[in-house]
Design brief:
The chain is α+β, with helices and mostly antiparallel strands and 356 residues long. It contains ten helices and 14 strands.
């Protein structure tokens, strides 16, 4: 379904960060915060999570301009116990709020062995893997949950959209192999992929969405006529519910019918909730020994005999690592429809366009 990336214009990672930061600064975000948020957003793009990177920038800028996001938040961290904390994002940029939570959880895990930090009064923050992977360079494991920023999923057997794509991401370091990084929505496809398909004039594969009569829905421009399907049937719907309780309700953040659809509402604070759990490996095993054992498991799985029709065993995080390497070398592909949206935004903000 996506464009052939080999035929698309490319932009370097550094140039993309500079463009995003300039847009944020023009919209009223302080320089240091703009730079940090830009680096986090571009992590989605360089890793291939294209529906969560600069694709989202015009939407974020629009919400800033209409008052839906606070440009000068007072992000506060409350240590609630030796191993836990709660971050109040004061309706700031989601990336800044979640990064603060992850950094806090890393610090707590360094002290206590494990750190669990929840967020409230935040916003959409991009790809879950970006935040789950932040502890990896510290020889730590990251486990991340989030409440999606719109409800696109009903309870199993219902038609009222009371649940979201509520993702899970887990990042585990290895020694010589790339880290294992799981990033999955609790729906068959994340809604960002639906938005990308609509922008690019593509159809969706059958199995992503159905309408309220239970029939396949493949036109992304008709997404309001139906809903996303959960992974694994009722099991995925149950996971969405439980992740929403952990990342939203537990933290005093929105969940269920309180979730604000930020695709349609640019002004109402979303009170988005996330949760990050960080485990310090050395509290369980010598880090190099553990990572060597992870390598061994990876190689055992790669050595598995294949079913007909499969060319190799694919493990979570491998394609991500390959995309990071390829895009670091060759640049990040920018589809024409996205370029047009970014050029329009840049003109309105009075900043230089992304591409010449």
């Amino acid at each position: 379904m996506p464009d052939d990336v080999t035929l698309l214009p490319r932009i370097s990672h550094a140039a993309l960060i500079g463009f995003i930061a300039s847009a944020y600064r023009a919209a009223g975000i302080a320089s240091d915060d703009a730079q940090k948020a830009a680096e986090l957003m571009a992590q989605s793009d360089i890793s291939g999570a294209d529906g969560h990177g600069v694709f989202r920038l015009p939407q974020y800028i629009r919400r800033i301009q209409t008052g839906g996001i606070n440009t000068t938040p007072n992000i506060q961290v409350q240590r609630t116990a030796p191993g836990t904390a709660l971050v109040d994002g004061d309706n700031g940029l989601g990336a800044l709020v979640v990064a603060c939570a992850v950094e806090t959880a890393i610090d707590i895990a360094r002290e206590q062995g494990v750190g669990w930090v929840g967020t409230r009064h935040g916003n959409h923050a991009g790809a879950a893997a970006v935040y789950a992977a932040m502890p990896v360079p510290h020889d730590m494991i990251g486990v991340y949950f989030a409440v999606g920023n719109a409800n696109h999923l009903p309870p199993w057997g219902g038609i009222d959209m009371l649940l979201s794509t509520n993702p899970l991401a887990i990042a585990v370091p290895a020694l010589e192999e790339p880290p294992l990084v799981l990033d999955m929505a609790t729906t068959v496809a994340a809604y960002g992929k639906v938005k990308v398909a609509a922008q690019q004039g593509k159809t969706m594969p059958e199995g992503w969405m159905i309408d309220r009569e239970g029939q396949p829905l493949t036109d992304p421009n008709r997404s309001d006529d139906g809903f996303l399907l959960p992974i694994g049937g009722y099991k995925g719907a149950a996971m969405s519910l439980m992740f929403g309780l952990l990342a939203g309700t537990l933290n005093g953040a929105a969940n269920g019918e309180d979730v604000v659809d930020f695709n349609k509402d640019d002004t109402t604070p979303t009170n988005t909730g996330q949760a990050i759990c960080v485990l310090d490996i050395k509290r369980f095993a010598e880090p190099a020994t553990f990572k060597r054992q992870v390598d061994a498991v990876i190689r055992q799985l790669h050595g598995s005999a294949l079913l007909p029709g499969f060319d190799r065993i694919r493990l979570p995080g491998e394609d991500r690592a390959q995309r990071i390497a390829e895009r670091t070398k060759n640049g990040i592909p920018i589809p024409g429809s996205l370029k047009a949206a970014l050029d329009k935004m840049a003109g309105e903000l009075g900043v230089e366009k992304l591409l010449a």
